[in-house]
Amino acid sequence: MTTTIPQTEYTQRIQRLQQKMLAENIDGFILSQNVDLYYLTGSMQTGYLIVPANGEPLYLVRRSVVRAQQEAAAVVEPLGSFRDFGARLARAFPPLAPPPAAAQTTGQPPIRLAAEFDVLPVAQLQRLQQVLPHVAWVDGSTLIRETRMLKSPSELACIREAARVIDVAFEDALSKLQPGMTELEVMAGIEYAIRRQGHLGTMRMRGYNQEVITGMLGAGEAAAVPTYFDGPAGGQGLGPAGPQSASRRPIGSNEPILIDIGCCIDGYVIDQTRTVVIGELPEDLVRAYETAEQILRSVESMLHPGTECEKLYMLSLQIAHQAGLSDHFMGFGDDQVKFLGHGIGLEVDELPVLAKGFRYPLEPGMVIAIEPKFTFPNRGVVGIENSYAITDTGFEKLTVSREGLIRL
Amino acid sequence: MTTTIPQTEYTQRIQRLQQKMLAENIDGFILSQNVDLYYLTGSMQTGYLIVPANGEPLYLVRRSVVRAQQEAAAVVEPLGSFRDFGARLARAFPPLAPPPAAAQTTGQPPIRLAAEFDVLPVAQLQRLQQVLPHVAWVDGSTLIRETRMLKSPSELACIREAARVIDVAFEDALSKLQPGMTELEVMAGIEYAIRRQGHLGTMRMRGYNQEVITGMLGAGEAAAVPTYFDGPAGGQGLGPAGPQSASRRPIGSNEPILIDIGCCIDGYVIDQTRTVVIGELPEDLVRAYETAEQILRSVESMLHPGTECEKLYMLSLQIAHQAGLSDHFMGFGDDQVKFLGHGIGLEVDELPVLAKGFRYPLEPGMVIAIEPKFTFPNRGVVGIENSYAITDTGFEKLTVSREGLIRL
Question: Residues in domain Creatinase N-terminal (chains A, B) (predicted)?
Answer without folding.
Answer: 13-149
